[in-house]
Amino acid sequence: MSNKLLSAIFGAGLAALAMSPAALAGDVLADTHTDMGGCESCHVDGDPSADGAQENAACVECHGDMGDMGEPHDVHEGILNCLDCHIMHEQTAADKPQLDAADPKCADCHG
Ligand code: HEC
Ligand code: HEC
Ligand code: HEC
Ligand code: HEC
To answer: Does residue 66 have its Cβ closer than 6 Å to ligand 2?
Structure first.
């Protein structure tokens, strides 16, 4: 695991102490990440880029390259980027896409 990811987890632990329980459950991924590192952890100056390239680079910096992650990441290395499957302002950790070709997100391309 990268140092950056470890320090983000450590920071999240501290932030969680200050958060109400209601803020912890069911939040979309953009919000859980904002609680850890602010909008700036993905967006330069907190503003979204036009093409998502900056945001995608931020994901890789913390989580690593797709080729180093398990299925379904490795099979799409060099073909897709994180944002093709993970919709940060819509999905919670629980309703991220499933590792199943029948998942609607996969079926967009493989259906
Ligand atoms: C974990 C990364 C992440 C964090 C943290 C995050 N965003 Fe985003 N946001 C994204 C991605 C990815 C997109 C879509 C890519 C793009 O179009 O730039 C996006 C899109 C947006 C958009 C465009 C409209 C939309 O919903 O698609 C706005 C506005 C936005 N973010 C504002 C914010 C604000 C304000 C915060 C902090 C409260 C924030 N974001 C935190 C990743 C993040
Ligand atoms: C500043 C570091 C950082 C950035 C930038 C970041 N993440 Fe994360 N992310 C974390 C940490 C820490 C967690 C919580 C620990 C974990 O689940 O790995 C997390 C959790 C997640 C989860 C939920 C894991 C689960 O429990 O199912 C997903 C999915 C995710 N990140 C995807 C992304 C994507 C996609 C981007 C880019 C838009 C991104 N992250 C940007 C640090 C980061
Ligand atoms: C082809 C669609 C797809 C792409 C592209 C993708 N993911 Fe995922 N991601 C998934 C699916 C599906 C899961 C759930 C895997 C499981 O349940 O085993 C997942 C799970 C995760 C998790 C939770 C922990 C784990 O490894 O299961 C994180 C963190 C994550 N993705 C981050 C990323 C990042 C960062 C990128 C870009 C570098 C990315 N993903 C690109 C589909 C994708
Ligand atoms: C944005 C389009 C897109 C999405 C979304 C997508 N894929 Fe793919 N996937 C591709 C492309 C393109 C390839 C490489 C060409 C090929 O082999 O079909 C590929 C290759 C694969 C492969 C390896 C080749 C094969 O067919 O055996 C698997 C397995 C796979 N995808 C599963 C998934 C799963 C599971 C999901 C959902 C979590 C998913 N894909 C989401 C576009 C996508």
So the answer is: no
Going by pLDDT thresholds of 50, 70 and 90, the confidence category of residue 29 is: very high
* Domain with 22 in it: 3-110
Query: How many angstroms from the chain centroid is the CA of residue 79?
Result: 18
Ligand 1 atom nearest residue 37's Cα: 5
Instruction: Provide CB contacts within 8 A for 58, sequence distance 6+.
Output: 41, 42
- CATH number, domain at 79? 1.10.1130.10
* Lowest pLDDT segment from 70-74, 76-80, 84-88, 102-106: 102-106
What is the pLDDT at residue 104? 85
Q: Which of 29, 47, 36 is nearest to 87 (CA)?
A: 29
User: Is the CB of 41 within 6 Å of ligand 2?
Assistant: yes
- Ligand 3: nearest atom to the Cα of 98: 12
CA distance 61 to 74: 16
Into how many domains does the chain fold?
1
